[in-house]
Fold each of these.
Amino acid sequence: MTTALKKPLYTAQATVHGGRDGHGRSADGVLDLDIRPPKELGGSGEGTNPEELFALGYGACFQSAMGVVGRRMGVDTSSSTVTARVTLGTIEGGAFGIAVELDVHIPDADDDTATKVVEAAHEVCPYSNATRGNIDVSLKVV
């Protein structure tokens, strides 16, 4: 099932040349960086890669979603951290896929409360909604 936007709020744009061994630049010029395969995939590792960028984006988006649901639930998430791990691997048919692990720490909340915030954030976060049912996403309160 496709999730249709009811009201677009913002569109990011970036142009990449050279794929995983190239260069990318956002339309506003804030991001302007080399993209290189990591050493584990035979590259130089002297640049970022799509998995790192996805991890940063998902982690930031998820933490913001925690802020939204935390406010609704009366839980302070301002000191929280989200560590996102994005793993690239092979899938059926010789194609490639990714899996995500999100480790969440909310220092001002007990484990039960933190778990409720994380589960609610997973329902609100645009990255979670985009990946739900498509890839493995593991959530862990640490």
Amino acid sequence: MGRRPSGALPVMRRHKLTNTARIVIDGKVYSLGRWGTDEARMRFDTFIAA
């Protein structure tokens, strides 16, 4: 499995133990809230827009 292209957008991922949505930006992990909720999707969209 190779690296992602440098211009690729971050991906929202699920942390199974805590059932939370997470995103990694510049090597830092940000928790977005419970997986599958509207709140997590809104926070993800905010990170992508910024």
